[in-house]
Design brief:
By secondary structure, this protein is α/β, with parallel strands linked by helices. Helix content is 53%, strand content 11%. The structure holds shikimate-3-phosphate (S3P). The site of shikimate-3-phosphate (S3P) has 10 residues, from loops.
Length: 171
């Protein structure tokens, strides 16, 4: 199947963009992020799309962004943390080399401070993160060809583990 060499999914703050950038460098290819595509196309921040138009509208924009990126991009692609919530988006991912970057709540707290810049974690970050993961974990697993745990690993180590898991290493 044509399309991206790697598609990264996983919760916000897990390092999809950082690891994606490193992977693209290692593979000598480009990096694309559907959040960035949506912001560029809409000319406004994701938080503003949530506030102005609601999450359902954002998910529809996200599905279109994922479909376009899967069709056009052959490098490394990262999806927003909630992209897997939409059944149509999950269907689009079938057959692609999807990697679920996982982390536990302690790692999430360490890595992001569970900061308030993300609209879905604005009130009680740790509790909301746990609830989000309870609702989403099985969906990440469902779309993923492989799962790479990021706990206690720096981005270089995670990128290495992704290359190993997908057997993308140069000899
Ligand atoms: C979201 C994750 C964000 C962004 C939006 C919603 C989510 O992307 O798409 O704020 O529902 O988990 P990142 O995972 O890149 O932060």
């Amino acid at each position: 199947m044509s399309g991206p060499t790697v598609v990264l999914v996983g919760p916000m703050g897990v390092g999809k963009s950082t690891v994606g950038g490193l992977l693209a460098e290692r593979l000598g290819t480009g990096f694309r992020d559907t959040d960035d595509d949506i912001v560029a196309a809409q000319g406004r921040a994701i938080a503003d799309i949530f506030v102005d138009d609601g999450e359902a509208h954002f998910r529809a924009l996200e599905k279109a962004a994922v479909a376009a990126a899967l069709a056009e991009h052959t490098g490394v692609l990262a999806l927003g943390g909630g992209a897997i919530l939409d059944e149509g988006t999950r269907a689009l991912l079938a057959g692609h080399p999807v990697v679920y970057l996982s982390m536990d709540v302690e790692e999430a707290a360490k890595r992001t401070g569970l900061n308030v810049a993300r609209p879905l974690l604005a009130v009680n970050p740790r509790k909301q993160w746990r609830e989000l993961m309870e609702a989403r974990r099985h969906l990440y697993t469902e779309v993923a060809a492989v799962v790479v745990a990021t706990d206690g690993r720096d981005p270089e180590e995670v990128a290495e583990a992704v290359l190993d898991a997908l057997e993308l290493k140069q000899a």
